[in-house]
Design goal:
The complex is a heterodimer of chains A (190) and B (573). Chain A has 190 residues and is mainly beta. Chain A contains 1 helix and 23 strands. Chain A is globular. In chain B, helix 4 packs across helix 6 and helix 6 packs across helix 8. Classes of the chains: A mainly beta (190), B alpha+beta (573). The interface between A and B is large, with 32 and 39 residues. The structure holds zinc ion (4 copies).
């Protein structure tokens, strides 16, 4: 195929993010990327689903609103989707921000509507993380799991099933395995 | 079929006492054991092997015993209890008194286990100023996963918080449930009434006790009986040992009621006790006829019957879905781990629930080399299966986490155990793996890490002359800063059982049954022996050791254990 050699699969940003040209990122001004994050082809990030319900905290900065905040060294595999969760509250429907910390891996085809995902979280393929779920640090979610809405998953849990249940604990020696720096470096741009 | 991922499992030596670490030159006579060790093989398919093989990540290491520790040879100690849903810590005193469930508002759906959320039964206010309207009315627990609602069992709540306390007062259907305090009061009132003779035993309301009242009634009845009989019995001195004796019962109850019986005033009366004879005293008559249950089964049908997993979550063993109750979240623990042999702590998490740091974390990963497996050639068959009787080479990469170089000896049986013995040859069974250098340049920022890996690449090239990347006997394949790759050659066995008799192994002649589950997985038992010289001064007691650093004491160490390498599945021809 006659593709220009300079144009690789990924666009590399100043902070080292590798964003596939074939991903769909909507509402880019409402998305924060911490850096060194990989976004593969066919990934959808819905930055357009903004909060419309006024914040209860008046001290909150009135700058650009954030729909999706992502930390460093995250890895979003082919075809996964990040959607800020939404709900009806006191008569009006609003979306709420989706926050993802560092070293979070999301497998291919998974749909994430969580409120918060902590650091060092590994989400398998074809997982659904329901609305307003909270996933703490060092959690592994196995392939095909459906995490129900509002579920809280504490640190060091292994989660599986439909609906998700805690099926095991992360062993002490598995902690290093969550680091995604190697995975980031392994992504070549060709 | 799912793709086969090569794996390495390590056997914890606690499963076999004869394999143990010895200090070279120590008092332990080595001779006899040495020969035993060399002759013994390890069968990864043996039923017992399942309980001693672990991925390296699951193993700890005791620095005092110089030995691997697995979940079977460590002691767990609870650091704190917490609710996995609200993440609040629960003090151990309330775990003792209230039980091991969250007493706030954390509940799971009795149908599907998803979390329940509280919502108002009133329709949400609409229109102008809706957000200022106060929500009134009653609340229900809803499951967002299967759409179950506590309305289905007739439970509605007055307020959205402290659900546990509210549920404790409501029966399914909405009738009030007595709290222990109220129950006691009611019992006393009724007893007084009963003494007047106006008490009618056997009224409907009394006959059906819930589990809590049942226990309470029985407990107070027997406590009374005990206080009426000999107090000597409480000490077990009366000499009668039957279960019906006051002494034995007092001891048993003492176990459950934490000695409250001891201070009962004594009446110094000895004698036998009578049994409870009505619901007030805790008597519950088991209905002999199941006609009620059968009638309910007929009307509610299969859908109305609780499944086994649903019943298991409930304390009262309900038969019908309409008898299920929301399940309060089971508490979870943070635990530290101790070596069972020397009691030293191997792992200690931060005690705060939300903190994920460890104060102590001695993982085997930092003490013994990991073994990675990779096929040397791309598999010929597109299925990724191993072709039977075709020599296939695998690369085993040993990476050394220690800051001392390690001499590695590996040995395998010539044929893998089992009915289908594959031929195994390690081309280089003895080699030295270089020391790990400071991990800080790798851990601190990634610019250092990048430079490090490039340096490593260069070094690999420079040292490649040693291995040449050729599968040659006695030579390693490739070497890096702290890793070495060696080649193992495998001739996978044929899985056919219809071959000529003289070609069959002894096991095959004995058992010609069809292929069993995972019998096609080629697993190689490998005995690994490590020898290295440890810097004792630097290792023991950190701060104390810095003073006498000049006299470096080096100590010979040896560690030996079995591993199992799962290299692939053999194709069935
Ligand atoms: Zn063990
Ligand atoms: Zn709770
Ligand atoms: Zn449910
Ligand atoms: Zn020990």
């Amino acid at each position: 195929m006659s593709r220009k050699p300079a144009k690789g699969e990924y666009i590399e940003t100043d902070t080292g993010n590798k964003v596939s040209r074939r991903s769909q990122i909507i509402g880019t001004t409402n998305i924060i990327l911490g850096g060194k994050t990989v976004i593969q082809a066919e990934v959808i990030i819905r930055g357009d689903l903004l909060r419309t319900y006024p914040s209860s905290n008046p001290n909150e900065k009135q700058g650009t609103p954030v729909a999706v905040a992502i930390g460093r060294y995250c890895f979003f595999s082919r075809g996964c989707e990040l959607r800020p969760p939404g709900k009806l509250y006191k008569g009006s429907f609003s979306h709420y921000p989706l926050k993802i910390a560092d070293h979070v891996f999301v497998g291919p085809g998974s749909i994430i509507e969580a409120a918060l995902i902590g650091s060092h979280v590994n989400i398998g393929s074809n997982v659904v993380v329901g609305k307003f779920a909270i996933i703490k640090d060092f959690v592994k979610i196995l392939d095909g799991t459906v995490v129900p809405a509002n579920m809280v998953i504490p640190s060091f849990s292994i989660v599986a099933g439909r609906p998700a249940q805690i099926v095991g604990e992360i062993a002490e020696g598995e902690i290093e395995g969550f680091d995604l720096r190697e995975a980031y470096r392994a992504v070549g741009n060709s | 079929m799912a793709e086969f991922k090569p794996y390495t499992y390590f056997q914890c030596p606690c499963s076999d006492n004869s394999v143990s670490v010895r200090e070279v030159g120590g008092a332990n006579p080595a001779g006899q054991e040495e020969t035993d060790e060399d002759e013994r093989t390890f069968d990864p398919r043996a039923p017992r092997a399942n309980y001693s093989l672990y991925p390296l990540e699951h193993l700890l290491y005791c620095e005092d015993c110089h030995q691997i520790r697995c979940p079977r040879c460590v002691l767990d100690e609870i650091v704190c209890w917490y609710c996995p849903n609200c993440l609040f810590e629960v003090p151990s005193s309330s775990v003792k008194s209230e039980g091991n469930r969250c007493t706030r508002s954390c509940f799971q759906c009795p149908i599907c286990t998803a979390p329940l959320s509280v919502s108002s039964t009133e329709p949400p206010p609409e229109g102008l100023g809706a957000e200022y309207a106060t929500v009134s009315g009653t609340y229900v627990l809803n499951c967002s996963y299967c759409l179950w609602s506590s309305k289905e069992i007739g439970i509605e709540l007055d307020k959205p918080n402290s659900v546990y306390a509210q549920l404790a007062k409501i029966k399914n259907g909405g009738e009030p449930l007595l709290l222990p305090k109220e129950r006691r009061k009611a019992l006393e009132e009724r007893r007084e009434a009963g003494e007047d003779g106006s008490h009618i035993p056997g009224s409907k309301e009394e006959q059906e006790l819930d589990a809590e009242s049942h226990f309470y009634n029985l407990k107070s009845f027997y406590q009374e009986q005990l206080s009426d009989s000999s107090p000597a019995g409480a000490l077990g001195l009366t000499g009668d040992y039957g279960y019906g004796s006051p002494g034995a019962l007092s001891r048993i109850m003492g176990l459950y009621t934490s000695g409250a019986l001891g201070d009962r005033k004594s009446k110094n009366k000895s004698g036998t006790m009578r049994e409870a004879h009505d619901a007030l005293e805790g008597l519950q008559i088991t209905p002999l006829s199941a006609s009620d249950a059968i009638a309910r089964l007929c009307t509610s049908g299969w859908e109305g019957t609780a499944s086994l997993s649903q019943r298991r979550e409930q304390p009262h063993n309900p038969r019908f879905v309409s008898d299920l109750r929301p399940v309060a979240n089971l508490l979870r623990t943070k635990r530290s781990k101790r070596c069972k042999t020397c009691r030293h702590i191997l792992s200690k998490p931060e005690s705060k629930v939300q903190k994920t740091h460890f104060r102590i974390r001695l993982v085997a990963l930092n003490y013994i080399p990991n073994i990675a497996i990779r096929a040397l050639q791309a598999p010929s068959a597109p299925s990724g299966l191993l072709a039977p009787l075709k020599p296939t080479q695998f690369l085993l990469t040993f990476s050394n986490p220690l800051f001392d170089s390690v001499r590695v000896n590996i040995a395998t049986p010539a044929h893998t155990p089992g009915r289908f013995g594959s031929k195994v040859t390690i081309l280089c069974p003895q080699f030295e793996v270089g020391a790990n250098t400071d991990v800080w340049d790798e851990a601190l920022g990634e610019s250092g890490g990048k430079a490090g890996s490039e340096r490593e690449k260069r070094r690999t090239k420079a040292e490649a002359s040693e291995g040449q990347g050729q599968a040659e006997a006695g030579k390693i394949w490739e070497r890096g800063r702290n890793w070495v790759s060696v080649v193992v050659e495998v001739v996978p066995a044929s899985l056919r059982l219809d071959g000529p008799e003289f070609l069959k192994s002894e096991e095959q002649r004995r058992d010609a049954g069809p292929l069993r589950e995972d019998e096609d997985v080629l697993e190689i038992p490998v005995f690994v022996r490590l020898e290295w010289e440890a810097d004792v001064a630097g290792e023991e007691g950190g701060g104390l050791a810095t003073g006498n650093k000049e006299k470096e004491v080096r100590e010979k160490r040896e560690l030996a254990y079995w591993c199992v390498l799962g290299v692939g599945r053999i194709a069935q021809d």
